[in-house]
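Input (Lysophosphatidylserine lipase ABHD12):
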Amino acid sequence: MASAESFHQREYVEQQGPAVRVPYFIDLKRPQDQGLNHTCNYYLQPEEDVTIGVWPPRGGDHRVELYKVLSSLGYHVVTFDYRGWGDSIGSPSERGMTYDALHVFDWIKARSGDNPVYIWGHSLGTGVATNLVRRLCERETPPDALILESPFTNIREEARSHPFSVASTQYFPGFDWFFLDPITTSGIKFANDENVKYISCSLLILHAEDDPVVPFHLGKKLYNIAATSRSFRDYKVQFVPFHTELGYRHKYIYRSPELPRILR
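Output:
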């Protein structure tokens, strides 16, 4: 067995209706087609009417490449599709996605013995990751560390900072009322900025300066909140920026030759 186990939170664009196949032309039942050996496809059932697909890795090319990096460092990587994405069954919601992550975490802990477990969240997945880790810390079963790649502060602030929103506010004075207020009133928060105040484990934040999806300043703002939080007084909080000239943008930090050193 390798020295550690981890699982990576999945992020895709939410759509309504039945399960969303993204990427559409990938057969999720055949992980071997993605170029990684010794990989099994299986399913977990966090709730009676919900089934989530699990295998390392599931999905896009950049995720596959990240998992290869982690695997080369001796980590076992467990990744999954939230309910409503890929071939997982169920309707997505913030509560449901967080519950799926909790179910996978408990499944891993039951099988990993004394090996450390690290939680990795990317983009929207950082919202699920901090929801999960806050809950784990509150029940006194924290992971060994939390890694947030391209995180935001909260979903409203991220939506407000998105390039589409920035452009729209110039021509649509009621943009906040029409688009952003319904997000808040619907109960969708993904409040990383609040969650980190209740997290008590080591935290590593990775963010590219040229990220066009989640602005760099949101990741830095989240770090500043965490670094001054009393919950981290006994734990390491680290922020690693990747300069614009590297071209890592929103999802290519795995290309950094420094990443293995950072993660060790």
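Strands lie at 4-9, 42-47, 50-54, 75-79, 117-122, 145-149, 202-208, 237-242.
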